[in-house]
Amino acid sequence: MTGKKIIAFLTLVMVLGLQVTTLDARQIDDISCSEAIVLLVPCVPFLTGLGQPTPSTSCCEGAQNLNQKADTTQVRRDVCECLKGASMKFGVNSDKTKQLPQLCNISLSFSIDPSIDCNT
């Protein structure tokens, strides 16, 4: 993708993200659904398969920040539900979501999968 196309794509993603989050702007304890999505916006090109084969530094920083903020079981469940809904709307590639924690050096006790049961 050219630079202009990437910028246009990211702008579209941010606009769509704002639309998604205004519909689902509930507060997730210390982090809102919209804040969780905004933290992962830099990951969208990687997660949709439209960007580089590895996540960007800003993507990994956002994912690590989100992982730190989601510090209780209930917050993780709420973030999980939020991101499940967003992933369906953004057309996220499930193989890429499974790769993200390892590629960003995030240790999780579960696999990230759009079909995950967030209550387990």
TrEMBL record:
GO biological process: lipid transport
Pfam families on file: Tryp_alpha_amyl
Keywords: Disulfide bond, Lipid-binding, Signal, Transport
GO molecular function terms attached to this record: lipid binding
Bifunctional inhibitor/plant lipid transfer protein/seed storage helical domain segment(s): 33-118
UniProt KW Transmembrane helix keyword: no
Highest taxon above the source species: Eukaryota
Keyword Disulfide bond in annotation: yes
Signal peptide from the UniProt entry: 1-25
Family: Belongs to the plant LTP family.
Task performed by this protein: Plant non-specific lipid-transfer proteins transfer phospholipids as well as galactolipids across membranes. May play a role in wax or cutin deposition in the cell walls of expanding epidermal cells and certain secretory tissues.
Protein name: Non-specific lipid-transfer protein
Organism ancestry: Eukaryota, Viridiplantae, Streptophyta, Embryophyta, Tracheophyta
